[in-house]
Amino acid sequence: MAPKSESLEWKYKNLERLLASTLQYLSDDEVEEIDLEYLMEHTDGLREWWQQYREENKKALEKEIQQLLPSLSLEELEELRTKLKKYKNLIPKVLEFDEERVNKRLQLGYNCIL
User: pLDDT tens digits for 76-105?
Assistant: First the structure.
């Protein structure tokens, strides 16, 4: 039982550190424009935590989408399928251009949605 308790305490302390670092950056009067990439780069472990958080919530997102599908009309489902196909075909072409840049843009876009 002790290892689980220690693991939870470590996670708590790590989250506390990430939150404190983030709030310190956000409350800095000298920061004129919030730069999420800067925050990710200069907060040790924040990027890794964010990626893990997103992966852990992927299953919940998939389940939520599956639950919504039956309520959609046939036309809405067809429109959704078309959009997904376009997106699926577009991604390999875009990633060939500059994978690192695109990944950063997607990540920043995802942050804005939250």
Answer: 999 998 988 887 776 666 555 556 666 666
